[in-house]
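Priority: medium. Attachment 1 of 2:
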């Protein structure tokens, strides 16, 4: 379960543009709109994790001969994400969202855009490999429910707290403080993905 919680948190943390968008909706939108966006991002994360967790289990069980290659691929994906975060622009403004559509439209748009990101599935599998979930546990269907539950807790923890903060505090806290807090996520993610790359190398060995 710990590996699932870790993977859920990291995958949610990596959706940095989503976190920024949630804060922007909190600054200019209603609580209903904020909850719609937060729920959309959380659900999209769980969709990819619900594919990655059993998929990686089956690959680890039936394709053990390519285990080294799987970890090398994870190193490549995690390294790419680290470089991407090092090059990500700093957040400058939060009040540029303009007039927002209804909560339903915001939900659908956020869900579709997050789901359509091409790196979500490879990154989910790479993060799971870096946590060593199927190294610490045998690759079997008995392990999957616990990992899924952990992933649900991790995703719910991240998006739950940020949705709450955006809904009830985004308009109260000075924008410069919110921007400063958001800009700390970017370098943290860059360093985190570098460490995950090293972890994937260690598990490959």
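Attachment 2 of 2:
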């Amino acid at each position: 379960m710990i590996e699932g919680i870790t993977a859920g948190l990291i995958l949610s943390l990596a959706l940095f543009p989503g976190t920024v968008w949630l804060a922007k909706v909190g600054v200019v939108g209603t609580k209903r709109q904020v909850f719609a966006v937060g729920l959309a991002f959380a659900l999209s994360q769980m969709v990819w994790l619900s594919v990655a967790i059993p998929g990686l289990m089956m690959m680890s069980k039936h394709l053990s001969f390519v285990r080294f290659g799987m970890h090398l691929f994870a190193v490549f994906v995690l390294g790419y994400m680290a470089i991407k975060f090092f090059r990500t622009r700093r957040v400058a403004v939060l009040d540029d969202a303009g007039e927002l559509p209804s909560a339903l439209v915001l939900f659908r748009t956020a869900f579709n855009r997050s789901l359509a990101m091409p790196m979500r599935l490879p990154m989910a599998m790479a993060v799971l490999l870096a946590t060593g979930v199927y190294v610490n546990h045998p690759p079997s269907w008995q392990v999957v429910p616990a990992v899924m539950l952990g992933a649900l807790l991790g995703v719910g923890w991240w998006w739950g707290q940020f949705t709450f903060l955006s809904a009830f505090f985004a308009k109260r806290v000075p924008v410069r403080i919110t921007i400063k807090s958001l800009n700390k996520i970017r370098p943290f993610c860059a360093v985190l993905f570098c460490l995950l790359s090293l972890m994937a190398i260690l598990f490959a060995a």
